[in-house]
Amino acid sequence: MPIRIPAQLPAKEILEKENIFVMEEERATMQDIRPLNILILNLMPEKEKAEAQLLRFLGNTPIQVNISFLRMTTHNSKNTSKLHLDTFYQSFSEVNKKKFDGMIITGSPVELIPFEEVDYWKELQDIMDWSQENVTSTLHICWGAQAAFYHHYGLNKYELPKKCFGIYEHEVLLPNENLVRGFDDHFLAPHSRYTDIEYERIRNHPELQVLAHSDQAGVFLAGSKDGKNIMATGHLEYDATTLAEEYQRDHERGIKTQIPENYFPDDDPEKAPLYRWKSHCSLLFSNWLNYYVYQATPYEWD
Q1: Which residue has the higher pLDDT, 3 or 254?
Q2: Cβ contacts of residue 240 below 8 Å, gap of 6+?
């Protein structure tokens, strides 16, 4: 089934070339089914790239999905045009009277800044509080996951000795949980972050459970036991070349980031990286949409 997006969204052309089933709003109104309404709070600096990455996997499910994009009004984006934001994004005041079946809160390159010093932290807190009553399930990604751990469960991050940067092997710890249904016992996932949350603090929290863990990269998948909040500390949605682009960008800025681990063949940045996590990203998004959103959300919100 398709994802429903505005006809002029730039990601539409990218997705259609990849044979992802997208549907313009006019055609979608003719579908006599109950679609899922998903709100994406896109905190990534390159918003158009993040849009395509997320929509690629949201569109690979048997459920029609209506997408709305949310932006922060307390932060000025430097990498996305005002025209793009004004055309395709809404403010919190425009959506906070609505109900959403699912929500995604993305990562953001601010993990070295204390949460309270992030310029949009108060607005994000308001959104996360609102989500608990107005969203069936929220998927938090990377820094978005760390923000959820801190805001909802009081678990603060700590700075790593060096950037967690590369492709790491993870073990599924709770194979009977629906979120990891169909996963291999061990799977690969990208990480790109400078901070982490202590594994034992998450594991011992009475409201949380750890679903997947890496000896090198720590907790990857965790969630509240009621499925309301899902936290993914890495970036399964990343394209094959995203870490290479981050590595090149850091070096152009004079940041001596190490070569991403387990990424370039022979650790040679001149060689094209292999795309080895795509199938598990498809499973993650389809499992979340099916079991934590579609199966749990009311047909009609009160």
Answers
A1: 254
A2: 272, 273, 274, 275, 278
Residue pLDDT, tens place only, 107-162:
999 999 999 999 999 999 999 999 999 999 999 999 999 999 999 999 999 999 99
Say what the pLDDT of residue 300 is.
Answer: 83
Q: Which residues, at least 6 apart from 299, have a Cβ–Cβ distance to it below 8 Å?
A: 34
**How is residue 28 written in tokens?**
């979608």
Whose tokens are 């800044």? That residue is: 113
Q: Indicate the angle between helix axes 143-153 and 121-134, nearest 10 degrees.
A: 70
Is 142 catalytic? The answer is yes
CA distance 184 to 186: 5
Set 152, 170, 235, 280: catalytic member:
235
Q: In 57-85, which positions are buried (b, 16+ CB within 10 angstroms) versus exposed (e)?
A: bbbbbebbbbbbbbbbeebebeebeeebb
Catalytic: 205?
no
Strand 65-70 to strand 89-90: parallel, antiparallel, or no bridges (unpaired)? parallel
pTM of the model: 0.89
